[in-house]
Write a structure and sequence with these properties.
The chain is an alpha/beta fold. Helices cover about 50% and strands about 15% of the residues. It has eleven helices and eight strands. α6 links the parallel β2 and β3. α1 packs across α4 and α4 packs across α11. The longest helix is centred in the N-terminal third of the chain and has 17 residues. The structure holds guanosine-5'-diphosphate (GDP). The site of guanosine-5'-diphosphate (GDP) has 17 residues, from α5.
Length: about 300
């Protein structure tokens, strides 16, 4: 594992054997390599800086263990730091309301995988014997509403009947009423997305959050977005009561630096990873797996 970084660090440390502690200069050189590895994995620059500062602190004064190559020591410090920054070994599941229905609101840019993820969550919850209702609030895109209805069928759950001409807040109210009256455990609200961040989208999503007071407001983001991830996460976090992140396309080629960037910028737990286009392609987040991927 981590061959690319390992090779680079071996070069840095070849000269080092025989010395008692890692010197500041050695650490600086090693951290330069770590920095490149993180940037190559598409971690956002401010997050890379923060990470390197912490890792440097940890590495300073570390005794060189005879049986362990210094390169491996630095890799371990880096890997452990990444796991910690990604939230450690604790896996955060969904917060379910004490009094059903639990409301889960999905937010994110158009194309992030928001609607697909709503369907995946519905399937997951229905496997846990929850009665789930899916509702699309994407009034500007009838196709998105139909897509959610199809996903509901695939997941074997109900979707709120589509009433053309209703506003998003009105659909949210109707969905909440149906969920309550018909004894649903979970209502998933799929909000409208935009290709870019815009004020109309944000204020509509904020209003829906106010109306529905969700137990979970999940930001769905594409794991391949790279440097843009920070801007997106910040913008949504400022306006919505986000409780967690879902990163989609974790099955793609990217090294997934966006996961670290978004987690660092928002402090929110990453709850799930989307790992395929299929309805069952949703895994619980695993910090070790993602840290390993970032190191390449
Ligand atoms: P939305 O506009 O945010 O609702 O995005 P969609 O849910 O319509 O997803 C956009 C595209 O991404 C669709 O073709 C999905 O099948 C695909 N997609 C969503 N999640 C994943 C994932 O985890 N992995 C892969 N490979 N594709 C995904």
């Amino acid at each position: 594992m981590f061959e690319a970084l390992s090779d680079r660090l071996t070069g840095v440390f070849d000269r080092l054997s025989g010395r008692g502690v890692l010197s500041e200069k050695d650490i600086d050189e090693a951290m330069r390599e770590v920095r490149i590895a993180l940037l190559e994995a598409d971690v956002a620059l401010p997050v890379v800086r923060e990470f390197i500062a912490k890792a440097k602190e940890r590495a300073t004064g570390e005794a060189v263990i005879r049986s362990v190559r210094p390169a491996d020591q630095v890799i371990k410090i880096t890997y452990d730091g990444l796991v910690e920054m990604l939230g450690g070994d604790e896996v955060e599941g969904l917060n379910l309301a004490l009094n059903p229905p639990t409301i889960i609101m999905m937010a994110g840019l158009q194309g992030s995988g928001k609607t697909t993820t709503a369907g995946k969550l519905a399937l997951r919850l229905s496997k846990d014997r929850k009665k789930v209702l899916l509702a699309s609030l994407d009034t500007r895109r009838p196709a998105a509403m139909e897509q959610l209805a199809m996903l509901a069928k695939q997941a074997g759950v109900e979707s709120l009947p589509i009433v053309p001409g209703q506003s998003a807040p009105d659909i949210a109210r109707r969905a909440m009423q149906s969920a309550k009256l018909q004894g649903y455990d979970v209502l998933i609200l799929d909000t409208a997305g935009r290709t870019t961040l815009d004020e109309a989208m944000m204020s509509e999503a904020a209003e829906i959050a106010r109306i529905s007071n969700p137990s979970e407001t999940l930001l769905v983001a594409d794991a391949l977005t790279g440097q843009d991830a920070v801007r997106t996460a910040k913008a949504f976090h400022e306006r919505l009561p986000l409780t967690g992140l879902v990163l989609t396309r974790a099955d793609g080629d990217g090294r997934g630096g966006a996961a670290l960037s978004m987690r660092a910028v928002t402090g929110l737990p990453i709850k799930f990873l989307g790992v395929s286009e299929k309805i069952d392609g949703l895994d619980a987040f695993d910090a070790r797996r993602v840290a390993g991927r970032i190191l390449g």
